[in-house]
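Collaborator request, handled under Task 6.
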Amino acid sequence: MRALLIRPSRNEEDAAALISYGIESSIIPLIGISNLENPTGVKGMLSEIRTNENVWFIATSSNAIEALISQADPAELALAFKNPNLRFAAVGESSADSLKAIAEVEVLVPEIHDAYSLAGAMIEAQNQSSKMRPTVVMPIGSRSLVVAQDKLALAGFDVLAEVVYQNRPLQISETERAEISSEAIGFVLFRSPSSAKAYFALQGVPTRTVISVGATTTAAIRELGFASDLALVETTPAAVAQKIAEHLNHKERQ
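Structure tokens returned to the collaborator:
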């Protein structure tokens, strides 16, 4: 039984967690990530979070934060993050960690790690504080879903979202293509809608177990016409590996 790991980065984290349960992995990213230079957008985001008196900064992914850091002036970013009226939120623990790596801040993370739940948690927190119209600033990717943006806008937030990185399909070799189709692959781990789209465009109808992480990815797979055999809410590699091992053990006993 092998896992197929296809997200653009950090597959090694999942592989390390899975091997602790005796599950080996094949790592073949189907989507690549690169910076999309946006100096005007980055400057506007920094200005907003530095001066606004009621503002949130969202980490929708660690990729977005890494791309922002690479494009922003370090001194200007540090100054902006010192705004006492600035609050932070992240879609999951890894996204929150990417914020904490650059600033000692408290980060709101929803119990369910998806964009819809993140927006709901922010709306609830905002309703308990200032009545001033809030602003949310969010660096995003070129294929990011607008779930959080739409929900926050409907709740009265001013939304400033700027694209700072892009997802692009990768060319895979014949060897990699053969490995993806190999009978040794027992399941595919999906962590993003873009990776799911790339996989199903390549493979079509799934012939092995489909495991999705996060409600957003699970919904994206459903919209593509397929279903997850196991849909996970918790997103940390350790929690994901544990649930997968439990699921596989249960199947073996049946």
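The cover message to the collaborator said: "The first helix runs from residue 11 to 19. The mean pLDDT is 92. Please let us know whether this matches your experimental observations."
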